[in-house]
Amino acid sequence: MRFDESYSGKVFIMSRATEEEADAVIYGMPMDWTVSFRPGSRFGPNRIREASIGLEEYSPYLDRHLEEVNYHDAGDLMLPFGNAARSLDIIEGYLDELLEKGKFPLGLGGEHLVTWPVIQAMYKKHSDLAIIHIDAHADLREEYEGEVLSHSTPIRKSCELLGAENVYSFGIRSGMREEFQYAEESGMHMARFEVLEPLKKVLPELAGRPVYVTIDIDVLDPAFAPGTGTAEAGGISSKELLASIHALAGSNLNIVGADLVEVAPAYDPTEKTQIAASKFIREMLLGFVK
């Protein structure tokens, strides 16, 4: 069984009935096996779905309605608890199938390590792939406490696979000194602290290229998103992240997939984190799936 059937009644608002009729597929990656501080992001995908019921189906930002996008919510992948390597293999295998069918994948995390197998699958499909990474953390470590499979490593792994010059990080405000040194020396593109303005500057050079977008909810200041495992003060607002998503949507990029990760609902009894995340997913669907 690939998907957790216990979530079968909880889908993102206006999900179509079958994968076959869909242009885009939402899927959950409920894994938090390698987190370095607070666990709980494995519950993020389902809570984002539940929060989506409060959304309007129409976006006044993009003047589009969810009925204009054919998408299917496949549910959460069944990932073996505590087994990071096997979980990543399952994710990569599923992405291989989605891409073979020509679907636009939109993933819900889960910790940020789940992005790594997605990038591997994407690279097999798009050899000139670029990544836009929006996050509080650099995620450029080679390992964490001796573990090479860690949510602090996916962007370093992506740099080594794609070439660092094809990785663009925004909003970064936390990391080891060595991570920032690597960013400067490797040729990758890193914008510290801010997202929208530096993002706008690089969009022209990425025009027409296949681009994968990964967003860690902790790029937001904890005032806007306390429900995350590794909250980091000094972040951007929900308004700025929405504007950044819209800048991507209005660009000439060939966005081939995306994810939103690290929502950990237990730390936010107000539910504003998952409410915000569900709105970001709506805007990504309407803006990225043409």
TrEMBL record:
InterPro entries: Agmatinase-rel, Ureohydrolase, Ureohydrolase_dom_sf, Ureohydrolase_Mn_BS. Keywords: Hydrolase, Manganese, Metal-binding, Polyamine biosynthesis, Putrescine biosynthesis, Spermidine biosynthesis. One of its GO terms (molecular function) is agmatinase activity. One of its GO terms (biological process) is putrescine biosynthetic process from arginine, via agmatine. Its cofactor is Mn(2+). The keyword Hydrolase applies. It catalyses: agmatine + H2O = urea + putrescine. Its EC number is 3.5.3.11. Binds 2 manganese ions per subunit. Pathway: Amine and polyamine biosynthesis; putrescine biosynthesis via agmatine pathway; putrescine from agmatine: step 1/1. Mn(2+) binds at H112, D135, H137, D139, D216, D218. Coiled coil: none annotated. Belongs to the arginase family. Agmatinase subfamily. PANTHER family: ARGINASE/AGMATINASE (PTHR11358), GUANIDINO ACID HYDROLASE, MITOCHONDRIAL (PTHR11358:SF26). Catalyzes the formation of putrescine from agmatine. This is Agmatinase. It comes from Halobacillus faecis.
